[in-house]
Specification:
Its EC number is 2.7.13.3. It comes from Neorhodopirellula lusitana. This is histidine kinase. Keywords: ATP-binding, Kinase, Nucleotide-binding, Phosphoprotein, Transferase, Two-component regulatory system. With 383 residues, the chain is α+β, with helices and mostly antiparallel strands. It contains nine helices and 14 strands. The chain has three domains: 107 residues, Beta-Lactamase (2-Layer Sandwich), CATH 3.30.450.20; 60 residues; 160 residues, Heat Shock Protein 90, CATH 3.30.565.10. A five-stranded antiparallel sheet has the order 2-1-5-4-3. Strand 3 and strand 4 form a beta hairpin. The longest helix is centred in the middle third of the chain and has 45 residues.
Length: 383
């Protein structure tokens, strides 16, 4: 498999690196206090994130802003008790320098571990903004791409809202089931075969909760926190954790990295998740005492400096259907799991303005290729 990455960059994937994203994300608590915002929001409003954290959203959507014709009264987002994702608000936004610009805002309600939150998707309606209607009512040349990305954000926000609600409502039911199992186990203490059944039920309940959390994590906005990471060491430590219980039946890992990969600025947790998922699949595909190759080198990507990571197992490869669909959300060939592992990997890599692809290697096994620009050092986000 040669040059998997270049066609995707040439087809406009690098456009995702621009600050002309059609939507910005602002997250608040249920009272309108700002909890987080993405890089696009920082660029549009002229604030650093830490300047807005803890402040009311009225700072960027002042009380003088009015709602659209479908509303019956003046409204500010901080006063929204129940978010309705079907409602679009036309609000005048205010930058740090005091200038204003028109926006369209939709708000989704989220349930998090810290309580109820609001996720506001903001669209800049300024004239000639890519991805929105111009003064003649027509879309700009890049409107299709931007519109598609906006729809993706709205879809993910809706998925997260749904799963958050289900997870919140199910938590009490799962806890009640766990309590009933605890009592049942006490009564069955001398019947080991029945106790084993209750343990299986307990594991199944844990799987349900884990699936909810995995889907919610997939749909959540990605807020990168970049630090300097040694990718070779990160790969080796992750592999050691994954194979600690395999003993002599563990495959072997070979790591070959140049000096560039010893100090890459990226989100260590997100990149760690990517490497973990990729290595888990490689280990699962490998024979005992097989070999998994991890190669990381400096590379020129679309004329810009970057790094390329290759991870290859030497197993039997995958079917044509799996090769085509392996990054598709909820697609899995395993009996357990949500099928979101590689889909999460792709979102994490795209948040870093990179790409990830995988295919059968001509000489056997599966080769995963990851390309990351090294000159993008500011925090970025994806929906």
């Amino acid at each position: 498999m040669q040059n998997l990455t270049k066609p995707l960059w040439d087809n406009g994937f690098s456009n995702l690196q621009s600050d002309s994203s059609p939507t910005a994300i602002v997250m608040t608590d249920s009272h309108g206090t700002i909890e987080a915002l993405d890089h696009v929001a920082e660029s549009w409003f002229g604030y650093e994130e830490n300047e807005l954290l803890g402040n009311s959203i009225d700072v960027i959507f002042p009380t003088s802003a009015t709602s659209d014709d479908t509303a019956h009264s003046v409204c500010t987002l901080s006063q929204l008790g129940v978010a309705d994702p079907k409602q679009c608000w036309l609000l005048q936004a205010c930058r740090k320098d005091g200038s204003t610009f028109p926006t369209q805002v939709t708000v989704n309600s989220l349930v998090t571990t810290s309580g109820d939150s609001r996720l506001a998707n903001v669209i800049d309606l300024s004239p000639r903004t890519p991805g929105i209607r111009d003064m003649a009512g027509e879309y700009s040349d890049q409107g299709g791409l931007h519109q598609e990305r906006w729809i993706q954000r709205e879809r993910l926000a809706a998925v997260m809202q749904m799963v958050s609600g289900l997870s919140h409502e199910s938590r009490n039911a799962l806890q009640r089931a766990q309590s009933c199992l605890d009592l049942l186990q006490l009564d069955l203490a001398d019947q080991t075969d029945l106790v084993a059944l209750t343990d299986q039920i307990r594991d199944a309940l844990k799987d349900i909760h884990r699936n909810y959390e995995e889907v919610k994590s997939y749909a959540a906005p990605i807020m990168l926190k970049r630090t300097v990471v040694d990718l070779g060491k990160l790969c080796q430590s992750t592999f050691d954790e994954l194979t600690a219980s395999l003993g002599e039946h563990s495959p072997q890992l070979t790591v070959r990295c140049d000096a560039t990969c010893e100090s890459v600025k990226l989100d260590a947790d997100r990149m760690g998740d990517v490497i973990r998922h990729v290595l888990e699949n490689a280990i699962h595909a490998s024979q005992p005492e097989g070999v998994i190759d991890f190669i990381c080198n400096f590379s020129s990507i679309a004329g810009a400096p970057g790094i390329e990571i290759h991870v290859r197992d030497h197993g039997e490869g995958v079917t044509e259907e799996v090769e085509v669909r392996m990054f598709e959300p909820f697609f899995t060939t395993k009996l357990q799991g949500t099928g979101l592992g590689l889909a999460v990997c792709r979102r994490n890599i795209q948040a870093h303005h990179g790409i990830i692809e995988a295919a059968n290697h001509p000489e056997g096994g599966v080769l995963v290729e990851i390309s990351l620009p090294t000159d993008t050092v500011v925090d970025t986000t994806l929906p």
